[in-house]
Specification:
By secondary structure, the chain is an alpha/beta fold. The chain has three domains: about 70 residues; about 160 residues, Histidine kinase-like ATPase, C-terminal domain (Heat Shock Protein 90), CATH 3.30.565; about 150 residues, Response regulator (Rossmann fold). The protein is built from eleven helices and 14 strands. The longest helix is centred in the first third of the chain and has 44 residues. The protein is globular, with a radius of gyration of 24 Å.
């Protein structure tokens, strides 16, 4: 009987999840379809404005955000982790918060004067803060105050679960605090359970805090939620502190951008979706790059043999027919190691089902793709290789002396 009951609960949870996804995606598709129809009519009438196209792009970004939330909820990784300044990231996120709350809620930001470095994906911090902020908003129907803050934590300020790890690491505490209605002791133990929600039907899926929990876990951190009824709630996220960023890296990336270092470079584009391949090729050609196009791994392998000495970049989908992107990149590593490899995928970063593992140090970009993000990842890959080659040259000089 317990097994049957558990199976029934899983089916109910899957039904809730499917219903929520279908509802959100149908809304997004309706927005895209509606604005596309309007744009086509305006194009015919000669009245098409950039705003119409921006609305379509914003809707696709919402769809991409939904898939990222689902993957975080499933404890899957997307993209690679990069060292980033949490203070700078929170300052950028703040611009999204005030419109979320409206005029009745005051949103304050308390940050240290110096950078605080963490290892995270570009969307991780925004997903954490926005989901915690939405939870705070629902606790403040009549208005109130929300404080977003971060600080470095010594061992004495860490929760017991981190002190017991005894790994000697320092941590950063990201906090979202409100003075709302609080969470009752009966509800508090369940808040991170998927689909658990005390909100009215239609006002919440119960996934928000489960998503936060999944992201924090994959970043090697913990979340500690404290609440008192009538006083408010404090959500504390503890993430490992990263080493301070090497000042040379941003300078190298700035050089790559300002010098137009991508211009005239040859990129082998391996993508099995024809329409996406067309769009990517146009993006790359817009950067004044020479593009070699392949629809699967075998085609890419043939092109690398033909143009071996010319290829500066391999931009490859991870999951492809004939030969996957990982195997293709390994061939380049053996035959032309100076090639800059950039992976792209709409699948989770670590895809155990397919047995594919993108190297942790690899350049990676998540689909859907935008021209700016493609350009930035290529410039970053080129800058890192230039730095590495310069450092290897210095080391060789030192050893010769």
């Amino acid at each position: 009987m317990p097994d049957i009951q558990l199976h029934a609960q899983k089916l109910e949870a899957l039904g809730q999840l499917a219903g929520g996804i279908a509802h959100d995606f149908n809304n997004i598709l309706s927005i895209i379809e509606g604005h596309t129809e309007l744009a086509l009519k305006q194009l015919e009438a000669g009245t098409l404005t950039p705003e119409q196209l921006e609305r379509i792009r914003a809707a696709t970004a919402r769809g991409a955000g939904l898939t990222r939330q689902l993957l975080a909820f499933g404890r899957q990784k997307i993209g690679v982790l990069e060292r980033m300044d949490m203070c700078k990231a929170l300052s950028n996120i703040r611009l999204l918060l005030q419109p979320l709350f409206g005029a009745s809620v005051r949103v304050d930001l308390s940050l240290p004067a110096r950078p605080v470095w963490v290892e995270a994906g570009e969307d991780h911090l925004s997903q954490i803060v926005l989901n915690l902020a939405l939870n705070a908003r629902d606790a403040l129907p009549a208005g109130g105050e929300v404080l977003v803050s971060c600080m470095e934590c010594g061992a004495g300020a860490l929760p017991e679960v981190l002190r017991s790890r005894a790994d000697g690491r320092s941590y950063v505490r990201l906090s979202v605090t409100d003075n709302g209605c609080g969470i009752s002791p009966a509800v508090l133990p369940h808040v991170f359970e998927p689909f658990y929600s005390t909100k009215e039907r239609g006002r919440g899926t119960g996934m928000g805090l489960a998503v936060v929990y999944g992201i924090v876990q994959q970043l090697g951190g913990v979340i500690d939620l404290r609440s008192r009824v009538g006083e408010g709630t404090a959500a504390h996220v503890y993430l490992p502190l990263a080493a301070a960023e090497d000042a040379v890296q941003p300078l190298a990336e700035s050089w790559a951008r300002e010098a137009g270092a991508l211009r005239g470079r040859t990129v082998l584009l391996a993508e099995d979706e024809p329409e996406l391949q067309d769009i990517l090729a146009l993006m790359l050609e817009g950067l004044e790059m020479k593009v070699l196009r392949a629809g699967n791994g075998n085609e890419a392998f043939a092109l690398q043999q033909e143009f071996m000495g010319e290829i500066d970049f391999l931009l490859t989908d991870v999951v492809m027919p004939e030969m996957d992107g990982i195997a293709l990149a390994e061939i380049f590593a053996q035959r032309r190691p100076q090639t800059n490899v950039v992976y792209m995928s709409g699948y989770p970063f670590l895809n155990a089902e397919r047995g594919l593992r993108v190297p942790d140090t690899a350049a990676f970009i998540s689909k859907p793709l935008q021209e700016d993000s493609v350009r930035q990842v290529l410039e970053r890959a080129l800058a890192r290789r230039s730095l590495r080659e310069a450092q290897e040259g210095d080391d060789k000089k030192d050893s010769d002396q």
